[in-house]
């Protein structure tokens, strides 16, 4: 038929035939690179098992992994591995396939996104049919065509997939003691567990059981009132406990940067920020970005003098003094179901918990003469270098993440590249723990300084949406905030208010075997 002549067998001497390699075939070196990506990657705590144990780079084999590990590799790791080993025409549909399943398995998915996913999976299969032979496309490969519509009919995947059922079957199998009568063993053990469960729930206030014990990534968010003065520090908890933090001496630069960041994220200071803006505009000549820089650097000292007047509250007077030179340092922090570590702690562990990502509204200047900057939501990626707690002389205590921020580049396949050798925003390294989400980085095997950023989400926390926002609004309108320092910014509520709503109204699956 004359189709794909370059793939036709070529007859050689002796009646034998030589076959051309297909475009998706890997050489021995490429297989080593593929296995090396899976072998060297460090994953966040609790996201998957240690996949590196299932990889043998010398033999170029991957075996012994569970179905959830394959699920995780398809979502995150396969994209980086095949991008470095396969040609673009083969890697592109496979990268899109991983993105399709990652979008499909989100905890929150919009109905309009399902229309896009239905079109996307059809195009992906059309590309794959141009690459792989017909024998590859069995019924299991065909099934993803219907998955987007199943989500529309049945709801999010988390409520319908087989992982809870498989865990339950594994638990039931462990009940068998008499192999001659497995059903009777299972029934007897099941009834015994039901009786113990009833007793545990009846005695939950006086006895420590699996129904009232704290989860592994438990934080003290549910014990914090919305009205607390030290709002930023009350959410979450250090891994070693606040009393066990290591004291150290703050240098003047770190102290000024940390205090400045807290000032610009305090809602009650907004009035004085605008007042200082008017003074800078009238006294400083030059383009707008020069005035913005001056306003940022000079505000701390100006506010310290401004707070001496009688119209400033006592809390703001204490806040304007700045933190003490003695602070505490932690190596880990728990907040919103995430476990964060510093880079030094990650270096000695098999997991990676130091990656953070932050979405912030940032003004962008087109040039030095631009007088109308555009404010856009920009995503930042970084790693936690230090976790410190500032002490405002016994009045307030704030926990901050000190991060290394990196330059980011978006690839055509939708992958986010982060360059660890190109640091940026070194004069603004701090961020509040409640403002960041966790991510992890997969190193590019062809470039040691380039990493691919992958966003992760806590598995046992769900955003309840409108109900959470309603509770925060009711708390806002109540008398709870009267006479107290409001640490929530009103102009950028997405950074903190959304986090607090998740903390107050998250559903935690205490019965999950993942605990």
Structure description:
By secondary structure, the chain is of the alpha+beta class. The protein has three domains: about 20-160, no CATH class; about 165-200, no CATH class; about 220-505, no CATH class. Helices cover about 40% and strands about 20% of the residues. The chain is globular and about 95 Å long. Residues about 225-230 and about 465-515 have low confidence and may be disordered.
Give the gist of this structure:
This protein is of the alpha+beta class.
Quote the distance from N terminus to C terminus. Answer: 59 Å
Q: What fraction of the residues are assigned to beta strands by DSSP?
A: 15-25%
Number of self-contained structural domains: 3
Radius of gyration: 28 Å
Shape: globular
Q: Let me know the number of strands.
A: 16
Structural class: alpha+beta
- Helical percent range? 25-40%
- Low-confidence regions: 225-231, 467-515
User: Numbering strands along the chain, what is their spatial order in the largest sheet?
Assistant: 10-11-12-13-16-15
In DSSP terms (H or I, runs of 4 or more residues), the helix count works out at 16
Give the mean pLDDT. 81
Main beta-sheet strand count, sense and barrel state = 6 strands, antiparallel, barrel
């Amino acid at each position: 038929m004359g189709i794909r002549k370059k793939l036709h067998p070529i007859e050689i001497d002796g009646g034998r035939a030589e076959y051309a390699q297909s475009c998706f075939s890997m050489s021995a070196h490429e297989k080593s690179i593929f296995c090396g990506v899976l072998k060297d990657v460090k994953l966040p705590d609790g996201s998957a098992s240690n996949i590196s144990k299932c990889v043998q780079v010398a033999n170029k084999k991957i075996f012994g992994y569970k179905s959830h590990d394959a699920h995780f590799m398809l979502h995150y790791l396969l994209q980086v591995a095949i991008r470095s080993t396969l040609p673009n025409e083969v890697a592109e549909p496979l990268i899109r396939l991983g993105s399709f399943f990652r979008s499909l398995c989100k905890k929150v998915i919009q109905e309009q996104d399902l229309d896009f996913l239905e079109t996307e999976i059809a195009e992906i299969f059309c590309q794959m049919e141009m690459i792989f032979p017909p024998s590859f496309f069995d019924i299991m490969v065909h099934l993803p065509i219907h998955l987007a519509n199943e989500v529309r009919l049945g709801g999010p995947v988390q409520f319908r997939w087989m992982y809870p059922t498989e865990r339950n079957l594994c638990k039931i199998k462990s009940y068998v003691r008499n192999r001659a009568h497995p059903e009777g063993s299972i029934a007897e053990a099941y009834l015994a567990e039901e009786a113990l469960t009833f007793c545990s729930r009846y005695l939950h206030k006086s006895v420590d059981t699996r129904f009232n014990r704290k989860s592994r990534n438990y934080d003290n968010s549910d014990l914090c009132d919305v009205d607390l003065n030290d709002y930023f520090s009350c959410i979450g908890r250090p891994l070693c406990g606040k009393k066990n933090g290591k004291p150290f001496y703050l240098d003047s630069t770190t102290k000024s940067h940390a205090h400045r960041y807290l000032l610009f994220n305090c809602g009650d200071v907004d009035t004085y920020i605008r007042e200082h803006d008017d003074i800078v505009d009238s006294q400083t000549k030059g383009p707008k970005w020069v005035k913005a820089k001056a306003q940022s650097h000079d505000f701390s000292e100006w506010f310290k003098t401004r707070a001496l007047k009688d119209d400033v509250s006592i809390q703001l007077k204490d806040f304007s003094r700045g933190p003490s030179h003695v602070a505490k340092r932690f190596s880990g922090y728990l907040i919103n179901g995430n476990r964060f570590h510093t880079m030094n702690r990650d270096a000695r562990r098999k997991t990676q918990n130091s990656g953070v990502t932050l979405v912030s509204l940032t003004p962008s200047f087109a040039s030095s003469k631009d007088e109308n900057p555009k404010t856009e939501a920009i995503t930042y990626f970084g790693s936690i270098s230090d976790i410190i707690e500032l002490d405002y002389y016994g009045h307030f205590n704030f926990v901050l993440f000190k991060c290394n921020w990196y330059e980011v580049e978006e690839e055509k396949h939708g992958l986010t590249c982060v360059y660890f050798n190109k640091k940026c925003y070194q004069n603004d390294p701090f961020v509040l723990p409640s403002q960041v989400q966790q991510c992890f980085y997969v190193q590019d095997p062809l470039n040691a300084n380039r990493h691919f950023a992958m966003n992760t989400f806590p598995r046992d926390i769900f955003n309840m949406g409108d109900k959470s926002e309603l509770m925060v609004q009711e708390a806002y309108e109540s008398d709870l905030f009267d006479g107290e320092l409001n640490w929530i910014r009103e102009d950028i509520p997405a950074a903190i208010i959304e986090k607090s709503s998740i903390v107050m109204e998250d559903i935690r699956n205490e019965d999950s075997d993942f605990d």
